[in-house]
Give the backbone structure.
Amino acid sequence: MKTLDADTPDVKIENCHDTVPLLSDTINQVRKGQIDPRVANTLGYLASVLIKAVEQSDIEKRIEAIEAAVKTNRPSTSLDMTGIDV
């Protein structure tokens, strides 16, 4: 099974955009016979899991920001919505 050399630099992935060059390089390495397709398949799967985790983290941050904004704009007493036309 062909794998990358142990001295191959690590790839830092912090967002979804970071996976594009990694997957592109991997596709080309498979095409050239430099790595085993099973290794590339595993990398693709792991990249997919990582993308989902990054997206989930982004969603959680956005929700926290929205909750903080709502909390700071909320009156100190609970709102009575009776009689309000929506």
User: Anything to note?
Assistant: Residues 16-73 form one domain. The chain has a mean pLDDT of 86. The first helix runs from residue 19 to 31.
